[in-house]
Design goal:
single chain; 284 residues; seven-stranded mixed sheet; 8 helices
């Protein structure tokens, strides 16, 4: 018997809940607005937010839960740089299927560019600033298995983790996969040896068994993966403050699944969302 949960955004806490147009001259919204977009700018803003979510859970019926998610997008990778070089149609039709162009290497599993590392450093500064203003460190941390996301997670929380809390790598948090070589992940052995301080979820396969060179995952498929991640977290985690370091495609799907208004998050950006989960019925 499996509970079927539905998800929705609880609006009114963050400016991103009701975003305006993208930043002038850009295809994206703001990456790191002041206070991560928290509307309350009082000195007690974070303690009040956490207390509000705790009260929501206290008052909620047994089939309803609330959690605060911070979704971070990885910094610029070499594939992002290549997309900007070639733009959408040439990238999708040709270049994305290759590992590089002789000057740039973007597949499989590209690293961060220097700009991307700088964007992760900017996220680190934003986290550090708000920690000093009362934002607690995330109680649970999750990350995509792709190197650009893990490296962003490393840089974002460098020297900020108060008790050595470990981040767990989860297969379903990866980017849309298939055809694009940049979205093919490395082996479990490589990830474990390169990032030994990270936990890896049970059942994580040695090879990438999901990526294929001829079929691209659909948005509907990514929505299913995001819902599976939310189901896992709301079923297993008693913690109320969750960090996820991921990708544009994953984050867009998270917004769809939680009925959040679209927010085009640039590389290195962070978007917080208060999510309400409701168990609707029991499936046999």
């Amino acid at each position: 018997m499996l509970p079927n949960r539905s998800y929705e955004t609880v609006v009114g806490y963050f400016a991103q809940d009701n975003p305006g147009p993208v930043t002038p001259g850009s295809d994206f919204h703001e990456a790191l607005p002041p206070r991560f977009g928290l509307i309350d700018d009082s000195p007690e803003r974070w303690s009040k937010l956490i207390a509000s979510i705790q009260q929501l859970n206290i008052d909620a019926p047994t089939h309803v839960q609330y959690k605060l998610f911070f979704l971070g997008r990885h910094g610029q990778g070499y594939h992002n740089f290549a997309w900007e070089k070639y733009r959408a149609k040439p990238w999708d039709d040709y270049w994305s299927k290759l590992n590089g162009d002789g000057e740039l290497t973007w597949g499989p599993d590209p690293e961060l560019t220097p700009l991307g590392e700088g964007q992760a450093d900017e996220a680190h500064v934003a986290w550090k600033t708000e920690f000093q203003c009362g934002l607690p460190f995330p109680e649970k941390l999750y990350c995509s298995p792709l190197s650009r996301a893990i490296r962003t997670n490393q840089l974002s929380f460098k020297d900020l983790n108060p008790d050595g809390r470990k981040t767990t790598i989860v297969e379903n948090i990866r980017e849309e996969f298939g055809i694009h070589t940049c979205d093919k992940r490395r082996t479990r052995t490589y990830i474990h040896e390169t990032f030994p301080e990270y936990l890896i979820e049970d059942g994580f396969t040695e090879e990438d068994e999901l990526w294929t060179p001829d079929v691209r995952e659909t948005w509907e498929d990514v929505d299913v993966r995001v819902k599976a991640v939310l189901d896992m977290i709301f079923k297993n985690d008693k913690e109320q403050f969750i960090s996820i370091t991921a990708h544009g495609g994953f984050i867009n799907a998270f917004l769809r699944v939680t009925n959040h208004l679209p927010y085009v998050l640039p590389t290195g950006g962070v978007i917080p969302i208060v999510v309400k989960a409701t168990i609707e019925r029991v499936l046999a």
